[in-house]
Description:
The protein is about 45% helix and about 15% strand. The chain has 12 helices and 9 strands. It has helices at about 10-25, 55-60, 80-90, 110-125, 145-155, 170-180, 205-215, 225-235, 240-255, 265-270, 275-280, 285; strands at about 5, 30, 45-50, 65-70, 95-100, 130-135, 155-160, 190-195, 220-225. The protein is globular. The chain starts with a strand and ends with a helix. The model has no long low-confidence stretch (mean pLDDT about 90).
Amino acid sequence: MNHILVTGAAGNLGGRVLAALHRRGVPVRALVRHDDRAGALVGSPEVVVGDYDDHHRLTHALSGVHRVFLVSANGPAQVAQECAVIDAAVDAGVSLVVKVSAHGADPEAPVGFWRAHAAVERHLAQSGIRSVVLRPTYLMSNLLGEAPQVRQHGLLPSPPLSAPLAMVDPDDVADVAAHVLLGGTGPDVTQRTLHLTGPEPVTLGAVATLLGEIAGHPVQHLAAPPEQAQAAMRAQGVAEPVVAEILRLFAALDQGAYAATTTTVADILGRAPRDVRDFLHRHAHLFQPAA
Protein backbone atom coordinates (compact mmCIF):
# COMPACT_ATOMS: atom_id res chain seq x y z
CA MET A 1 0.00 0.00 0.00
CA ASN A 2 1.19 3.54 -0.78
CA HIS A 3 1.20 5.44 2.49
CA ILE A 4 2.67 8.70 1.10
CA LEU A 5 0.78 11.06 -1.20
CA VAL A 6 2.79 13.54 -3.27
CA THR A 7 0.66 16.40 -4.54
CA GLY A 8 1.82 18.45 -7.50
CA ALA A 9 3.68 15.35 -8.61
CA ALA A 10 4.18 16.60 -12.17
CA GLY A 11 5.58 19.94 -11.01
CA ASN A 12 9.02 21.28 -10.20
CA LEU A 13 9.20 20.29 -6.53
CA GLY A 14 6.60 17.52 -6.49
CA GLY A 15 8.40 15.69 -9.28
CA ARG A 16 11.69 15.96 -7.44
CA VAL A 17 10.16 14.63 -4.21
CA LEU A 18 8.70 11.75 -6.20
CA ALA A 19 12.18 10.98 -7.57
CA ALA A 20 13.79 11.27 -4.12
CA LEU A 21 11.35 8.78 -2.64
CA HIS A 22 11.79 6.45 -5.62
CA ARG A 23 15.56 6.44 -5.06
CA ARG A 24 14.85 5.31 -1.51
CA GLY A 25 12.64 2.48 -2.75
CA VAL A 26 9.45 3.91 -1.26
CA PRO A 27 6.10 3.25 -3.01
CA VAL A 28 4.21 6.49 -3.52
CA ARG A 29 0.80 7.71 -4.65
CA ALA A 30 0.93 10.74 -6.94
CA LEU A 31 -1.77 13.37 -7.43
CA VAL A 32 -1.69 15.06 -10.85
CA ARG A 33 -4.17 17.38 -12.53
CA HIS A 34 -4.04 15.80 -15.98
CA ASP A 35 -3.68 12.14 -16.91
CA ASP A 36 -1.37 12.97 -19.85
CA ARG A 37 1.34 13.77 -17.28
CA ALA A 38 1.15 10.38 -15.55
CA GLY A 39 3.39 8.50 -17.96
CA ALA A 40 6.31 10.87 -17.37
CA LEU A 41 6.38 10.48 -13.59
CA VAL A 42 9.47 8.92 -12.07
CA GLY A 43 9.14 5.42 -10.66
CA SER A 44 5.71 4.53 -12.04
CA PRO A 45 3.80 5.57 -8.91
CA GLU A 46 0.14 4.90 -8.32
CA VAL A 47 -1.54 7.90 -9.95
CA VAL A 48 -4.72 9.72 -8.98
CA VAL A 49 -5.94 12.36 -11.43
CA GLY A 50 -7.70 15.32 -9.85
CA ASP A 51 -7.21 18.78 -8.46
CA TYR A 52 -7.49 20.47 -5.09
CA ASP A 53 -10.99 21.76 -5.81
CA ASP A 54 -12.44 18.28 -6.29
CA HIS A 55 -13.30 16.94 -2.83
CA HIS A 56 -14.26 13.52 -4.18
CA ARG A 57 -10.90 13.03 -5.92
CA LEU A 58 -9.03 14.35 -2.89
CA THR A 59 -10.82 11.85 -0.67
CA HIS A 60 -9.88 9.07 -3.07
CA ALA A 61 -6.26 10.23 -3.25
CA LEU A 62 -5.97 10.35 0.55
CA SER A 63 -7.57 6.98 1.23
CA GLY A 64 -5.11 4.86 3.22
CA VAL A 65 -2.47 7.61 3.19
CA HIS A 66 -0.52 8.44 6.33
CA ARG A 67 1.71 11.27 5.11
CA VAL A 68 1.23 14.03 2.56
CA PHE A 69 3.62 16.29 0.67
CA LEU A 70 1.70 19.49 -0.07
CA VAL A 71 2.76 21.99 -2.72
CA SER A 72 0.89 24.23 -5.12
CA ALA A 73 1.55 27.15 -7.43
CA ASN A 74 1.26 30.73 -6.22
CA GLY A 75 -2.02 32.29 -7.28
CA PRO A 76 -5.38 33.60 -6.15
CA ALA A 77 -6.78 30.14 -5.34
CA GLN A 78 -3.73 28.89 -3.43
CA VAL A 79 -4.99 29.44 0.12
CA ALA A 80 -8.41 27.88 -0.48
CA GLN A 81 -6.97 24.92 -2.38
CA GLU A 82 -4.20 24.06 0.08
CA CYS A 83 -6.61 24.44 3.00
CA ALA A 84 -8.99 22.04 1.19
CA VAL A 85 -6.20 19.45 1.05
CA ILE A 86 -5.47 19.94 4.74
CA ASP A 87 -9.14 19.55 5.66
CA ALA A 88 -9.43 16.40 3.56
CA ALA A 89 -6.27 15.07 5.22
CA VAL A 90 -7.85 15.62 8.65
CA ASP A 91 -10.92 13.67 7.56
CA ALA A 92 -8.73 10.86 6.20
CA GLY A 93 -6.75 10.50 9.43
CA VAL A 94 -3.42 11.57 7.92
CA SER A 95 -0.67 11.71 10.53
CA LEU A 96 1.81 14.12 8.88
CA VAL A 97 1.64 16.94 6.33
CA VAL A 98 4.86 18.38 4.89
CA LYS A 99 4.02 21.73 3.31
CA VAL A 100 6.18 23.81 0.99
CA SER A 101 5.96 27.42 2.06
CA ALA A 102 8.41 30.27 1.47
CA HIS A 103 11.13 32.01 3.40
CA GLY A 104 9.46 35.26 4.44
CA ALA A 105 6.00 33.83 5.09
CA ASP A 106 4.26 36.13 7.53
CA PRO A 107 0.73 37.55 7.88
CA GLU A 108 2.18 41.09 7.65
CA ALA A 109 4.66 40.39 4.84
CA PRO A 110 4.95 42.95 2.01
CA VAL A 111 4.55 40.18 -0.58
CA GLY A 112 1.17 38.59 -1.20
CA PHE A 113 2.72 35.20 -1.94
CA TRP A 114 4.27 35.19 1.52
CA ARG A 115 1.02 36.26 3.20
CA ALA A 116 -0.80 33.42 1.41
CA HIS A 117 1.71 30.87 2.69
CA ALA A 118 1.33 32.28 6.21
CA ALA A 119 -2.45 31.82 6.00
CA VAL A 120 -2.07 28.18 4.96
CA GLU A 121 0.55 27.59 7.67
CA ARG A 122 -1.89 28.95 10.25
CA HIS A 123 -4.68 26.69 9.00
CA LEU A 124 -2.32 23.72 9.09
CA ALA A 125 -1.24 24.49 12.65
CA GLN A 126 -4.87 24.78 13.74
CA SER A 127 -5.82 21.50 12.05
CA GLY A 128 -4.12 19.42 14.73
CA ILE A 129 -2.18 17.32 12.20
CA ARG A 130 1.51 16.86 12.90
CA SER A 131 3.22 19.07 10.37
CA VAL A 132 6.55 20.23 9.02
CA VAL A 133 6.74 23.43 6.99
CA LEU A 134 9.57 23.88 4.51
CA ARG A 135 10.48 27.51 3.88
CA PRO A 136 12.98 27.58 1.01
CA THR A 137 14.51 30.77 -0.33
CA TYR A 138 14.76 31.49 -4.07
CA LEU A 139 14.83 28.19 -5.97
CA MET A 140 17.73 27.76 -8.38
CA SER A 141 15.29 26.21 -10.85
CA ASN A 142 13.85 29.70 -11.38
CA LEU A 143 16.98 30.35 -13.45
CA LEU A 144 15.96 27.70 -15.97
CA GLY A 145 13.14 29.89 -17.25
CA GLU A 146 15.73 32.34 -18.57
CA ALA A 147 17.68 29.70 -20.52
CA PRO A 148 16.42 30.94 -23.95
CA GLN A 149 17.58 34.48 -23.15
CA VAL A 150 20.98 33.17 -22.07
CA ARG A 151 21.38 31.01 -25.20
CA GLN A 152 20.14 33.51 -27.73
CA HIS A 153 21.06 36.91 -26.32
CA GLY A 154 23.62 36.41 -23.57
CA LEU A 155 21.27 37.96 -21.03
CA LEU A 156 20.01 36.96 -17.59
CA PRO A 157 17.05 39.32 -17.12
CA SER A 158 15.23 40.13 -13.90
CA PRO A 159 13.36 42.97 -12.22
CA PRO A 160 15.68 45.31 -10.29
CA LEU A 161 17.85 43.20 -7.97
CA SER A 162 21.38 43.84 -6.76
CA ALA A 163 21.29 42.14 -3.35
CA PRO A 164 22.64 38.58 -3.09
CA LEU A 165 20.37 35.55 -2.77
CA ALA A 166 21.09 32.46 -0.69
CA MET A 167 19.28 30.51 -3.42
CA VAL A 168 18.63 26.83 -2.78
CA ASP A 169 18.81 23.81 -5.07
CA PRO A 170 15.30 22.33 -5.49
CA ASP A 171 16.81 18.85 -5.25
CA ASP A 172 18.01 19.73 -1.75
CA VAL A 173 14.49 20.83 -0.86
CA ALA A 174 13.18 17.54 -2.23
CA ASP A 175 15.75 15.51 -0.30
CA VAL A 176 14.78 17.28 2.93
CA ALA A 177 11.11 16.64 2.18
CA ALA A 178 11.76 12.94 1.54
CA HIS A 179 13.77 12.68 4.75
CA VAL A 180 10.94 14.25 6.76
CA LEU A 181 8.24 12.18 5.06
CA LEU A 182 10.13 9.04 6.03
CA GLY A 183 10.16 10.00 9.69
CA GLY A 184 13.34 12.02 9.91
CA THR A 185 11.91 14.59 12.33
CA GLY A 186 11.20 12.10 15.10
CA PRO A 187 7.84 11.18 16.63
CA ASP A 188 7.94 13.96 19.24
CA VAL A 189 7.69 16.78 16.70
CA THR A 190 4.18 18.25 16.45
CA GLN A 191 4.97 21.35 14.37
CA ARG A 192 8.26 22.41 12.91
CA THR A 193 9.43 25.05 10.44
CA LEU A 194 12.59 24.47 8.42
CA HIS A 195 14.32 27.38 6.68
CA LEU A 196 16.20 26.04 3.66
CA THR A 197 18.98 27.94 1.87
CA GLY A 198 22.01 27.27 -0.27
CA PRO A 199 25.55 27.42 1.12
CA GLU A 200 26.27 31.08 0.30
CA PRO A 201 24.54 34.17 -1.05
CA VAL A 202 25.25 35.05 -4.70
CA THR A 203 24.25 37.98 -6.85
CA LEU A 204 22.61 37.51 -10.22
CA GLY A 205 25.67 39.22 -11.67
CA ALA A 206 27.82 36.39 -10.32
CA VAL A 207 25.31 33.87 -11.68
CA ALA A 208 25.56 35.53 -15.11
CA THR A 209 29.35 35.13 -15.01
CA LEU A 210 28.97 31.42 -14.23
CA LEU A 211 26.46 31.08 -17.06
CA GLY A 212 28.95 32.69 -19.41
CA GLU A 213 31.47 29.97 -18.58
CA ILE A 214 28.85 27.30 -19.20
CA ALA A 215 27.34 28.83 -22.35
CA GLY A 216 30.71 29.59 -23.92
CA HIS A 217 29.92 33.26 -24.48
CA PRO A 218 29.57 36.31 -22.21
CA VAL A 219 26.34 36.58 -20.24
CA GLN A 220 25.21 39.79 -18.55
CA HIS A 221 22.68 40.30 -15.80
CA LEU A 222 20.06 42.74 -17.05
CA ALA A 223 18.14 44.31 -14.16
CA ALA A 224 15.23 45.82 -16.06
CA PRO A 225 13.36 48.83 -14.66
CA PRO A 226 10.03 47.85 -13.07
CA GLU A 227 8.01 49.16 -16.03
CA GLN A 228 10.07 47.14 -18.50
CA ALA A 229 9.92 44.01 -16.36
CA GLN A 230 6.16 44.47 -16.00
CA ALA A 231 5.71 44.79 -19.78
CA ALA A 232 7.85 41.69 -20.42
CA MET A 233 5.83 39.57 -18.00
CA ARG A 234 2.57 40.80 -19.49
CA ALA A 235 3.84 39.87 -22.96
CA GLN A 236 4.53 36.35 -21.65
CA GLY A 237 0.90 36.05 -20.55
CA VAL A 238 1.49 36.38 -16.81
CA ALA A 239 -1.72 37.48 -15.08
CA GLU A 240 -1.70 41.07 -13.87
CA PRO A 241 -2.10 40.27 -10.13
CA VAL A 242 0.82 37.84 -10.36
CA VAL A 243 2.95 40.42 -12.19
CA ALA A 244 2.36 42.89 -9.37
CA GLU A 245 3.32 40.34 -6.72
CA ILE A 246 6.48 39.32 -8.58
CA LEU A 247 7.58 42.96 -8.62
CA ARG A 248 6.86 43.22 -4.88
CA LEU A 249 8.80 40.00 -4.34
CA PHE A 250 11.87 41.32 -6.15
CA ALA A 251 11.63 44.62 -4.28
CA ALA A 252 11.80 42.63 -1.02
CA LEU A 253 14.67 40.52 -2.33
CA ASP A 254 16.53 43.70 -3.30
CA GLN A 255 16.25 44.71 0.36
CA GLY A 256 18.17 41.55 1.30
CA ALA A 257 15.23 39.34 2.31
CA TYR A 258 16.97 36.19 1.03
CA ALA A 259 20.60 37.10 1.70
CA ALA A 260 21.09 35.14 4.94
CA THR A 261 22.03 31.45 5.03
CA THR A 262 21.04 28.66 7.39
CA THR A 263 22.65 25.30 8.17
CA THR A 264 19.33 23.43 8.02
CA VAL A 265 20.02 21.41 4.85
CA ALA A 266 23.36 20.22 6.22
CA ASP A 267 21.91 19.55 9.67
CA ILE A 268 19.17 17.33 8.24
CA LEU A 269 20.93 15.61 5.35
CA GLY A 270 24.43 15.36 6.83
CA ARG A 271 26.01 16.99 3.78
CA ALA A 272 26.52 20.49 2.51
CA PRO A 273 23.80 22.00 0.34
CA ARG A 274 24.61 22.13 -3.36
CA ASP A 275 25.80 25.47 -4.70
CA VAL A 276 24.63 27.34 -7.78
CA ARG A 277 27.69 26.34 -9.81
CA ASP A 278 26.83 22.68 -9.33
CA PHE A 279 23.18 23.29 -10.27
CA LEU A 280 24.06 25.20 -13.44
CA HIS A 281 26.57 22.58 -14.56
CA ARG A 282 23.95 19.85 -14.08
CA HIS A 283 21.66 21.79 -16.42
CA ALA A 284 24.35 23.12 -18.74
CA HIS A 285 22.71 21.75 -21.90
CA LEU A 286 19.78 24.12 -21.41
CA PHE A 287 22.00 27.20 -21.53
CA GLN A 288 24.36 26.19 -24.33
CA PRO A 289 23.58 27.05 -27.98
CA ALA A 290 22.69 24.11 -30.19
CA ALA A 291 25.71 22.69 -31.97
